[in-house]
Amino acid sequence: DQQAALFGQGGFKEGDTKNTYGTGLFLVMNTGPELKISEHGLLSTIAYQIEGQDPVYALEGSVSMGGSLVQWLRDSLQMIPTAPAIEDFARQVPDNGGVHIVPAFSGLFAPRWRPDARGVITGLTRFANRNHICRAVLEATAFQTREVVDAMARDAGKELDSLRVDGAMVENELLMQMQADILGIDVIRPGDIETTALGAAFAAGLGSGFFKDFDQIVDLISIRQTWTPEMTGDERARAYDAWNEAVTHAYPR
Question: Is the pTM of this model over 0.90?
Answer without folding.
Answer: yes
